[in-house]
Amino acid sequence: MGQGKLFLVGLGPGSVEHLTHKANWALSLSEVVVGYESYVKRIDNLLEGKEVICTTMGGEVSRAEKAITLAEEGKIVSVVSSGDSGIYGMAGLVYQILQQRGWEATWGLEVEVVPGVALINAAAALLGAPLMHDFVVISLSDLLTPWSTIAKRLELAAQGDFVIVIYNPKSQQRWWQIIEARLILSRYRSGLTPVGMVSSAYREGQQTVVTDLEHMLDFEIGMLTTIIVGSSTTFIFEERIITPRGYRVR
């Protein structure tokens, strides 16, 4: 049995044109591709002749375990994630399971994280330049993190005058968290604070909204929306959101 390899591949925000050359190379080498079904569907034209293993949402642990087992058997396997595998992706979970199995980097299975264009980069590019100074990223999904912890992070980030990026703001089952998040931010930010919202960045159905904190809930928000709330220095220019870095402009 030959030595297997496990690639943890970030696919970028959606379109194949934002797939990196390294990610494309890793996929071309792979005998097996493992991922959430909607992510795999985006790259189906790259998967001819490969074994493809898909699961629905919630099957992350089983996907990771199956991929590791196949790689341990000597296969070259890619585990794919949307955006970047190391940012709310599969890389951390895979390493957790490898730790439980007693994996050591100096022998056997080779593991490589292949970075991708994160959704935060995609959203920022479509909005202008909102992340030019310090920022934080907070997911509103309380499936794996208690809401009390999320609320505390929102409050502290708002107090610190960070630009705040919000992932997973709303779903059919989770609708009140974004309302509560806006209330928390409003304690520390003016209602005129610029807010940008990008849904389905670089995918079919892409939508971009530039608004402010007071009016952000007037627009449609879903699970695929990334929200960027400006700091005290952020401004809107030509329907773009800009956070100055601090350079002196003549």
Helix content: 25-40%
**How would you characterize the largest beta sheet?**
5 strands, parallel
Number of strands: 13
Write down the Rg. 20 Å
Strand order of the largest sheet: 3-2-4-1-5
Output the CATH topology of the largest domain. Answer: Methyltransferase, Cobalt-precorrin-4 Transmethylase, Domain 2
Computed structural class: alpha/beta
CATH architecture of the largest domain: 2-Layer Sandwich
Low-confidence runs: none
Q: Total domains, how many?
A: 2
Termini gap: 65 Å
Please state the overall shape, judged from the principal axes of the Cα atoms. Answer: elongated
Mean pLDDT: 94
User: How much of the sequence is in beta strands?
Assistant: 15-25%
Given the structure, what is the number of helices?
Answer: 7
Order of helices and strands: EHEHEHEHEHEEHEHEEEEE
The CATH homologous superfamily of the largest domain is termed Tetrapyrrole methylase, C-terminal domain
Q: What's the CATH first level of the largest domain?
A: Alpha Beta
SSE diagram, text form:
Layout: E1 5-10, H1 21-29, E2 32-36, H2 37-42, E3 51-55, H3 60-72, E4 76-81, H4 91-100, E5 110-114, H5 119-127, E6 128-129, E7 135-139, H6 147-159, E8 163-167, H7 176-186, E9 194-199, E10 207-212, E11 225-229, E12 235-237, E13 240-242
Parallel strand pairs: 1-4, 1-5, 2-3, 2-4, 6-13, 7-8
Antiparallel strand pairs: 8-11, 9-10, 9-11, 12-13
